[in-house]
Design goal:
Elements lengths: L2 E14 L2 E14 L3 E5 L6 H8 L7 E6 L2 E2 L8 H8 E4 L11 H11 L4 H14 L15 H13 L5 E5 L7 H16 L5 E4 L3 H4 L4 E6 L2 E7 L5 H15 L8
Parallel strand pairs: 3-8, 3-9, 6-7, 7-8
Antiparallel strand pairs: 1-2, 1-4, 4-5, 9-10
Helix pairs in contact: 3-4, 3-5, 5-6
Length: 255
């Protein structure tokens, strides 16, 4: 399997010499093309910091992060925004849709910034919208569609540019059970049908059970790793709960 993301001995410190906090302590792992990997841990485990340094929102104190052949820890600050636009997709807790734009315009936004020709944009937007079940809603505004349809629009926007890596930050954190399930099923279809490579940070065992592999963090280090393999999602869910019990973490929304 081709490696999309490679993390090598990264560390992240906050504070000064008299009061240093080690948020990430010598973490190494890789993510293969087409994988759906979850990162779990209790509050303060380092999972959010890990997502931030992978997404180039923050920088590492030591070590290297490679997206394919590019060492993102060495990218010039002036080029980071362009790098994110062209290589990374994001799914957030909130939809972050622009209310003054139609769903079509929201999805097309990243393509427009990247100066893709208008005719090509229209084709790409319709194609991804159809695959995510909102192809007939593109002329509507976010206020005119349901929460689930907004979720699908946000997901379409995240993958329309065919990013090398899709980063999901607590994507079900603000959702009810039904909406959370719908969003996770959308992420699964993005992974399996669109071949999106996904790294999802969550503290929700239910959401994590949709991933194919999970890394558990504790005190800034990798505490454990489990792989779904041939297990059913229900079996994998139980295995996740077992590890979380060992971690002593927050088992939010146990279903």
């Amino acid at each position: 399997m081709k490696e999309i993301l490679t993390i090598k001995n990264i560390e992240k410190y906050y504070g000064n010499k008299s009061n240093v906090t080690k948020a990430i302590d010598d973490i190494s792992f890789s993510v293969g093309e087409g994988e759906f990997i979850g990162v779990m841990g209790a509050s303060g485990s380092g999972k959010t910091t890990l997502l931030n340094v992978i997404s180039t929102i923050d920088t590492v104190s030591a070590g290297h992060i490679y997206l394919e052949e590019t060492d993102i820890t060495e990218i010039d600050d002036r080029k980071l925004a362009e790098f994110r636009r062209k290589n990374l997709g994001f799914v957030f807790q909130e939809f972050n849709l622009l209310d003054t734009l139609t769903l079509e315009e929201n999805i097309a936004y990243a393509l427009t910034i990247n100066r893709i020709p208008a005719v090509e944009i229209a084709v790409k937007v319709q194609e991804i919208a159809d695959k995510l079940g909102i192809g007939d809603l593109l002329k509507k505004y976010p206020s005119e569609v349901s929460g689930g349809q907004k979720q699908r629009c946000a997901c379409a926007r995240a993958v329309v540019n065919k990013p090398k890596l899709l980063l999901a930050d607590e994507p079900t954190g603000a959702l009810d059970s039904k909406s959370a399930q719908m969003l996770m099923e959308t992420l699964i279809s993005m992974n399996e049908e669109l071949k999106a490579t996904i790294l999802m940070v969550t503290h929700d065992a239910f959401s994590a059970s949709y991933a194919k592999r999970i890394l558990f963090l504790k005190d800034g280090r990798i505490f454990n790793e489990i792989i779904r393999g041939d297990k059913t999602r229900k079996q994998f869910f139980g295995e996740i709960l077992d590890v979380m019990t060992l971690l002593g973490g927050d088992l939010r929304d146990v279903r």
